[in-house]
Amino acid sequence: MMKVIAIALLTFTLVLSRDVLPGERWESGRLPINDEEIMFFWLCRARHASVRPKALVLYLNGGPGSSTISNLFFENGPYQINGTGGFNRNLYSWNEEFDILYVDNPAGVGLSESYKSEFTCNTHQCFADTLYRFLLKFYETHREYDGVPFIASGMSYAGHYISPLSAFLIRNRDNAKFINYKATILFAPWLSFEQMHHAPGYLYDTGNFTFTDYLLHEIDSCICHSLFAVAPKIALELCILVKARCEKDSGVPNVYNIAVNRTYRDEFHALEAYLTQDWVKEKIGTKKTFKTNNYTIQYNVAIHDWSWSVLPDLSLVLENDIPILFVFGDKDLIMNWNGGYHVIENISWKGHEGFKNADWEKMLDGSTEFGKKKSWGKLQFQLLYNAGHFIAHDLPKRALDSVTEFINSAIRE
To answer: Nearest to residue 201, comparing CAs of 341, 303, 327?
Structure first.
């Protein structure tokens, strides 16, 4: 395995230096999991280090087909890229207390590599198996994490990666006792195709649809969903078109944050330009040309996996008393919180009725209300105000506070 370790003191801007993540303790590398697939990881060790790591947090992006390394530099990592190609130090990086493990998943996405003639890992069950094998390889070369609390986390379509992985870890815990799985955290996750059905209602509630718009798109949504019982493949393709039309007709410039009047294209293009420089590739240990998205994988996974629900996996996690935190932003259209809350409320587990009937609590910073939450047993749902899909990018301090409090509570149990 190729491994790169860098320690530096400079905490200014990356664009003017020949360093990567200055002032941080990090490691990146390629981990072969079989003869045809190599996973790329980037480990950011805790800024406030102790003799023994406090927790290892696996973090994944979704897409499907989107690079997790993009999130490292755009969302919750030590530095955040801006649209001009510069980098700002993130004071609220998730590695403040915990070691964060970013992995480009599945193989072929970002800096991970796949040499298969055809991309065949396109279901959430396959993703769980691949990620589990990656973790076994990672622990073989990082024995310092044996027994350290392990947190499975991710955002967006990573709901279809992290949920089955969490269930897989429970089913196989006797075979890998060194992985001390403690909790799952999902930010704006895709869990079930049913979430999409709530987009017209969300757009009406936020004033982006008239009542007539809402009714027309609600009818379209009901038709495509009703077809799943008789013609699932046709229904899936129809629902994808219905989703795209709903987003287009909303007139929202940015489906990831309806309050932002531009896309994030400049930031991601700048990141691609940065990570494809030869000196950067040499330092992080890759020869692959970085792309934020792999659209071939996106389409392949969409056709085979989008319509499946991972709620049974989450049910198993909760039935085994493993805490789960869901966090959504109220400005997120592409994974609107109405749909997310609806499917989470209907997870089948012993605390189902308790969670459904629990009261909402205000989330306060002094006298300022910045969100609301609902909790019951091991399940917690948070809605953060003024955040879109990339919650840790939009509200870095709020996101870090939520994650830190939740993880510290989970590892104390």
So the answer is: 341
